[in-house]
Amino acid sequence: MAGFPDPLKRLIDEFERLPGIGSKTAERLAFAVLRGRPEEAKVFADALVDAKKKVMSCATCSNVATSERCDVCSDASRDQGLVLVVEHPRDVVAFERTGRWRGTYHVLLGRLSPHEGAGAEALSLKALEARVAGGKVREIVLGTNPDTEGDATALAIERRLSGKVPVTRLARGLSSGGAIEYAGTEVLAEALRLRRPAIGGG
Ligand SMILES: [Zn+2]
After folding, report:
1. Mapping DSSP to helix (H, G, I), strand (E, B) and coil, where does residue 45 land?
2. Which of 26, 56, 107, 135 has the fewest CB atoms lying closer than 10 Å?
3. CATH code: domain of residue 176
4. Is the entire prediction scored with pTM above 0.85?
5. pLDDT at 202
C-alpha cells in the first residue's frame, strides 16, 4: 500500500512526538508546512533550532532565560527576599501580567502526585532550599495550581521549609481545579494580595 513519501512521513512523525498532537493533527500540520512558501518553512525551522540553542534555565530560579539569570532575577528592582513558587514558566508569565508582584520566583518545573513521595527529586526543590539557606529570603509564597497535585506539591514544600522561613499560600480566590495560567489577572492579583500563612507544615 502506498503511504506518504518518506520526507513527509518524517515530518508527520516529528509533529506527532509533540505533546497533545495526535496523528491526524500531525498530518494537518505537515500539510500546512507543505502548502507554505519555502522561506516560511525555513523561518519555522530556524525558530525551532534557535529556541533550543538560546533558551536555558535560570541558575537561580529555573525560569526560562537567555543568559545565566532570567529577566526577573537580573532585575535589581525586584525584591529578592520574596519568592513566589510556581510549577511552570507559563505561571511566571501569568503572574507578571498582573503587574503586582515585585518579588522573584522559583519554578519547580513540575508537580507531585498526591500518592507519590518519589518525584520530589525531579523538582527544583534543592535549589529552593539553597536559596532559603542563603538567608536573604523573608517569605516563600506557594503559588502552585489549586488542584490535587498542586496542593500535594505545596504541602511537601511547606514541610521541607517549616521553621526555616515564613511560608504563605495564595488566597482561595482561584476556582478550585482551575489553572493559574488561565486565571484572570485581577483574580491572580487578589490571590497574591490576600495571601495567608500556610498551615499543615507542622
Ligand atoms: Zn531567575
Report:
1. helix
2. 135
3. 3.40.1360.10
4. no
5. 39
Q: Phi first, then psi: what are they for 136, rounded to 5°?
A: -95, -15
Q: How far is CA 121 from the centre of its chain?
A: 16
Domains contained in the chain, number: 2
Cα-to-centroid distance, 4 and ligand 1 (Å)? 45
Measured in Å, residue 64 CA sits from the centre of ligand 1 at 8
Ligand 1 centre and the CA of 58: distance in Å? 5
Per-residue pLDDT at 41: 96
Tell me the residues surrounding ligand 1 (ion) with CB < 5 Å: 58, 60-61, 63, 70, 73
| Cell numbers that stand for 22 in this block | 495526535
Residues 48 and 69 in one domain: no
Mean pLDDT by 10 residues, the chain (202 residues): 90 96 97 96 96 96 96 97 96 95 95 67 84 95 92 90 93 75 89 85 41
Q: Are residues 38 and 137 in the same domain?
A: no
C-alpha cell at 142: 506557594
Q: How far is the CA of 200 from the centre of ligand 1 (A)?
A: 28
